[in-house]
Fold:
Amino acid sequence: MKPELLFLTVLRMSIVSGYVIICMVVIRLLMRRLPKMFCSLLWGIVLIRLVCPVAFESPFSLVPGGRLDPVRLLEEEEAHLQGNLGGNQSQEGNAAGETAAQTEEALENIAGTGSVFPDASADMDAGAAGLPTGKRQTSGAERAEILQIPDAGEPTVSGANAAPDIPNALAGAGCVIWGSGIVLLLLYSLCSYIGLKRRLGTAIPDGEGCYISDGIRTPFVLGMFRTKIYLPADLSPEEKEHVLLHERMHIRRGDTVFKPVFYLALVIHWFNPLVWLSYRLMEKDMEMACDEAVMARLGENKGGDYCRSLLNLALRGQNRTIRPLAFGESNTKQRVKNILRYRRPSTWVKAAAVILGAAAAFFFLADPLSANRGGIPADLTQDGKEETILAEIPENTQENSMAALQVKNRRGDELWESQFPLSGQTGISYYLYQTDEEDLLLRYTARLQPGEGMMSYQLFSLDETGQQQVREENEINYMAEKDRYLFDAEAVRQFLQALNGYLEHSILLLETRNGQAFYSTVEQPIRQTEEFRWMDQRYESIFGKSGSLDERLDKLQAHLLKIANQEWALENGSGRSEAEDQEQLMARLNAVTAGQLELIQNRYDGSETGEIVILAELPEDQITLYGYNDAEYSGRGVLLRNGEGISRFDITYGTSPRALLPEIYWDSGKEQLQMKILGASGTGLNIWNLYLFERTRDGLLKETMFQPDDYMSQLEQKISYDYDPVGQSLTLYAQGREIRTIDTSWAEEPVMDIYWGTIVDFELGETIHMLFTPALQIGNWPAPQYAEEADLTAVVEYGQDFTITQIQ
Structure:
């Protein structure tokens, strides 16, 4: 151990011991009428605190819980200095830690061996935008195995064992001063002992371990185990009898060991005046306790004779140089008073003293419960020192009850927290991923049902401030609707393979479902994997029993294709599949000629009934956007005319009188056409879709759409939030930077979750701006709500992919 750490550890012990000394002095005052043998026991408690760096833990400890650990103190100071030298690298690392894992705190269940299965009912427009709608239900089962948790690499320092908050620079100077004081006191004691031994060189044995010396003025005992009693040469027979009784009582009580050990503790804690006070009071109580023991043997009628012997010895003076190591007589006045009022204690007095002393030992030798009591240890900050992971579950569950997963550092301070409602829409669980090299947190989020699903995981560590440092993250979606079919079986398999690879080395930390919480303990960890068993457990009537994960995925893919084709057939009334319907539409669009388009003169205003209408145009750039609008494909299919070239796309647009028309913008610098078309609208719903068109080698345009799933995922990753239920406010952060505080006092119920992608618009131009508003899930309200002054903006950049930046 570094000298600085040793000094801080002793300083921490000394501060705790100082508190105990003050309490012992108070108890001593309460016991002033009791025999001193019980008071002297109190100093045993102080000695243990002075020399023992660890203690047992008890919820009844009266020692204040510590918050400072000397080991962490220096390491955090060093880490802080290194962080300052790291500059931008540290800032970039912190920014990367702010991800989607901080935005989805509402959950009901996790798709482990049990999954979240919301009902497959959704509003048609909302479904087209990929939004969660309607009531959700949950189901699932859990599987638990008893695992062996690795032993902690180093025991945590807890409770009273806490160090003072001293800067690292002062720790070294304090260590030098402390060590110098110890050396001086030990030299003083050694010189005193050598000088005393020289004076005792002429001592004459007097039998039974006694020696007579004319070089001393008062009697004393020397030695810890091979003790010798040294007496002045001119003692009277009565004085000698009293002295021998007194000094032999010291030996019998073990004071020849206790006092030197206490003195060594005093040497170590020389800087603490309370330790000097306790040493002095200990000496007084020790002497008076021996006096009482002598009186018990001699009888109370001999008290006067014994007091005369004490007074005679006091007149001789004291051996000041030997007091640290031997029993010289002192404090004569108080000792005489104590002897004269001494009465043999009754049984109930002895019992009361024993109970009081035992209670003092129990309450002051114990430390408060450490931070990892009932928790799971893990080194999440990657610094070689374990934190503690705690699952906080409300005792009385109510409709809006919240559970929480907390990480506390070695000082007991909260480093990181994630809250969970006991019921919700999205399944979310945290796991502890452990390898031989590191410990990480694994967050798995899932919303799985027959018609749509979303799964994501995030693997991360924590830095010293509690910011998430993302190591790996992944997200995958599937759905089947009249407007789209999205299911990549191989991508889903790869996702589950990666996820289950992590889960095989992980234990469940916290999962909530159906108003209950499930979590691991050190004694009984829970291990889970995602096998899509929800298909068997709740939807057996749809899928039937499946024997393997691959079989379940094949059945799900077939089911999604069936849903997609049925919805397309119902929508267009033709009975055609989606692929057949798209082929028919493109055939009609390809049949449109330039001559037909030249005949179209009027822009569409919601009342036009022609098969082709003008939706938007840029005359100066010779660009016109047409909408195909025949009876069978009303509001579906667009044509872009750029000069003489015509490009055709299967894109849906609105055709009602209230429909907002598309907008286009030609970016001549990038040779790129921008277009926004209303994708979905309704109560609490207004979503515009963004398309970019670039020229191909044949002169036609090729479209790229900023998918709602894509921008919702990016917003969830880049924006986090903290909800204050007391202050009724919601604070939004963009990659760790506070961007908005929203007042939610109007809701009168707590915010359970926030959603992105229900209000989205775009401003076209050389820089594309995205305008969006968070939707708040308030209590059990059936629809999301929107707060005033909650609108946000961002910049949309496009390279090979769309990227959201500069969130404001």
Notes: The two ends are 49 Å apart (CA to CA). Confidence is low (pLDDT under 50) at residues 66-73, 79-166, 324-328. The longest helix spans residues 168-199.
